[in-house]
Write a structure and sequence with these properties.
The structure holds 2 protein chains of 2 kinds. Chain A is mainly α. Chain A has helices at about 5-35, 50-60, 60-70, 75-110, 115-145, 150-175, 175-185. Chain B contains 10 helices and no strands. Classes of the chains: A mainly alpha, B mainly alpha. Chains A and B meet through α1, α4, α5, α6 and α7 of A and α5, α7, α8 and α10 of B.
């Protein structure tokens, strides 16, 4: 009834998940003990991403054209290398910020008595989509350079910004007077 | 000789674990797990006696007790869910929903397969039946572990040990049964040893993690957001719909 590849895949996935859990288990316990007195949502906990104009600049081909016009090959190489590095750092920072947003959300949602399954599922899917985009961006930048992936980068930045906005709204609602009272008691 | 050594080592570790559990009162905190362990020990002894003096009944005895072990194992999965998520009702709700979805998918798949192949239930051997049940268990345990990881659920040493040991045993059982069913006699012997060794490793993990009682670290803050959650969910959902529309626009342009 269950095929050999399916059974092997499921067994292996379970073992890998357990390995991940063993690695992260103690870290999670440490996190709880160290963060238990910290507020659930912090005002400054939003996305600390670069402004959109800056991101556009990283991926814009104008600078590359300008450097190319100088005719200096070492300068062009240096520019490409540096710009690729900056782009990769931006992708890395973006993915960290997205992970932080999701972590804050899960830390709040895991204690909610009337958590809505479908809403949570949609958030998880959006999170997975964003992380996938970040991964693809990272690969594309390394393979082709930042200038060729401009469109995708701007799109990912805007999408994560919207997720941050949704999280900010979530934070604003939960930080109401009753909520604050419950927290201080 | 090797199988005898593994057998005796397993029984020794089981006795040791049960003794520690009774002394440290762990047996009252994880009753299903220790009932499972007691039953395994009982199975080991019964199987040994039958194998020694009534070998004709060995196969029947083994598969009857093995099937009961699988059923009690489902109780362990429930105990992990119950104890691990006691302080996290949101994640518990997600776990319930996911397990229901998995059950529906498995039932539907089973019905479709049974409709396509009427003879499966008659032709499938005990090994194949056990593999099917173990795969279902593996899926449930994997879903729980994924949820625990995603929601960063903190574990006490005891519960982590139970989950790691039992999950490892189930994962290895699925893999070894898969190779065992389709293998030659020589490879069957090899995978039989691997299976026994994996149980021994699981016992080792339990010995390390269940030496003494250690409570699960529950978060000190009790967040009372349930009154707001519907409103929050609506606001978040609206924003996500906007984001989805934005995605469609971005992809379309």
């Amino acid at each position: 009834m269950i095929g050999i590849p399916t059974a092997l895949l499921l067994g292996t996935v379970l073992l890998l998940l357990l390995l991940l859990m063993a690695a992260r288990g103690s870290a999670a316990a440490r996190e709880v003990s160290s963060r238990s007195d910290a507020p659930l949502f912090e005002e400054e906990a939003g996305l600390d991403l670069c402004p959109a104009e800056f991101v556009t600049r990283i991926f814009c081909p104008d600078d590359l054209e300008f450097v190319s016009n100088t005719g200096s090959r070492p300068l062009q190489e240096l520019f490409r290398r540096e710009r690729k590095l900056v782009a990769l750092v931006w992708v890395h920072q973006t993915s960290i910020a997205i992970r932080r947003i999701m972590r804050e959300h899960t830390q709040a949602a895991r204690q909610s008595h009337d958590l809505h399954f479908l809403t949570e599922t949609k958030l998880v899917l959006l999170y997975a989509e964003l992380m996938l985009i970040c991964g693809m961006l990272s690969l594309a930048i390394q393979a082709a350079g930042p200038q060729r992936v401009r469109g995708l980068a701007v799109y990912a930045g805007a999408l994560s910004g919207r997720l941050a906005q949704a999280q900010h709204d979530f934070q604003a609602v939960t930080a109401g007077p009753e909520f604050r009272g419950a927290r201080s008691s | 000789m090797l199988s005898q050594s593994i057998w005796w080592a397993s029984i020794t570790l089981e006795v040791f674990l049960l003794a520690r559990a009774i002394r440290g009162k762990l047996v009252f905190r994880y009753p299903v797990f220790y009932f499972y362990l007691s039953f395994i020990m009982f199975e080991d002894v019964i199987s040994f006696v039958v194998y020694r003096w009534k070998p004709a009944f060995y196969s029947h005895t083994y598969w009857t007790t093995e099937f009961l072990c699988v059923l009690i194992g489902c109780g362990i999965v429930f105990e992990i869910y119950r104890v691990g998520l006691a302080s996290f009702p949101g994640t518990a709700r997600m776990a319930r929903n996911i397990l229901v979805v998995l059950f529906i998918v498995a039932a539907a798949k089973g019905m479709v397969a049974a409709a396509n192949d009427h003879q499966w239930w008659l032709e499938a051997g005990t090994l194949e039946l056990e593999r099917t049940l173990r795969v279902m268990q593996a899926v449930c345990v994997a879903a729980l572990v994924a949820l625990f990881l995603f929601y960063s659920i903190p574990f006490g040493k005891n519960l982590r040990g139970i989950l790691l040991g039992y999950g490892f045993f189930i994962g290895m059982r699925v893999i070894t049964l898969t190779f065992f069913i389709g293998g030659s006699d020589a490879s069957r012997q090899f995978w039989g040893y691997i299976y026994s060794a994996s149980y021994l490793i699981a016992l080792g993990v339990w010995c390390v993690h269940l030496w003494s009682y250690e409570a699960s670290p529950a978060p000190r803050q009790t967040i009372q957001i349930e009154r707001h959650y519907q409103h929050v969910a609506a606001a978040t959902q609206r924003r996500l719909h906007e984001a989805r529309a934005y995605v469609a626009k971005a992809v379309g342009s």
